[in-house]
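Here is an idea for our session: we take a single protein and study its fold together. Once you have written the record down, we can walk along the chain together.
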Amino acid sequence: MVARAVPLLSKQHGIDCVIANVENAANGSGLTEPLYEKFLKYGVHLMTMGDHIYRKAEIMPVLQKSDRIVRPVNYPADSVGKEFAIYHLPNGLPVAVICVMGRLFMRPPCDCPFKAVDRVLARIPPDVKTIVVDVHAEATSEHIAMGWHLNGRVSVVFGTHTHVPTADECILDKGTAYITDLGMTGPYDSVLGRRKDRVLRSLITGLPTPFDVATDDARLSGILVKVDSDTGRASHIERVRVDEKSLPGGVDPANEHND
C-alpha cells in the first residue's frame, strides 16, 4: 500500500513531506533495514517508532546513524536512537519530527511524556517552524491531553498505536492540527491487523495462539495537513484513506501479500 499509494497521494496533493509510524512494518512487529530502505524509496521522508522499536535487533545500526527516524523521547537516556529528526524540503525549509510514548497500559514503563517532549522541543533550532509530534499511546486521554499540552507550540500532533482511525481531526485554537489516531495501514479484514481466527481462538478459549498477520483488504490510513511554513501554524487537516481496490489496476494478486 505504501509503495503504490504514497507516490499517488504525493502527486495528487502536492505533498512536501511524508511522515509514517513504521514500528509494525516487519511482519507486524518491529522494523528491518531493508524495510527502512523501502520506505525511503517509496517516498517516506521521516519515520517514528513506538513500543516495538527494538523487536528486530538488526535495526539498531539504522537507529544509531539515520537522520530520518526517531525513538520515543521518554525512553531511557541511553536508549538507541535519536530523539528528533529534521528533514529539509527541496526548497530548504526544515520539518522536525518527535515521537513520545504514553504511560497508561503501555510497556515498557517510560518517563513522563509531557516533561520529555518539553525537554526535546527546547533543543530544536528556532528556525524550524514546522514540528510534528507522534503520540504513541493506548489511552485516548493521553493523546488528547498531549494535543492540548502542545497546542500552539507544534504544527501537528497525531496519535498512533490503537490501529483504529478516529474522527476527531481538528485545528486547535492556537493553530495545531490534531487527531487522536491516524489508523492502521495494513489488512483491515482482521483484528488490528492479525488473523481473525487466531485472535478469536485466543480470546474465546484462553489458549496460547500465534497472532499471525492477516493479508486481505489492505488500506492506507492517515491525514493530510497544510502548514504555514513561516509561522508553523496548521490551516487544514483531513483524514485520508486509500483502499487497495481503488488504486489504478486494483488488487495485484502477485503483490498482494508482500511486506
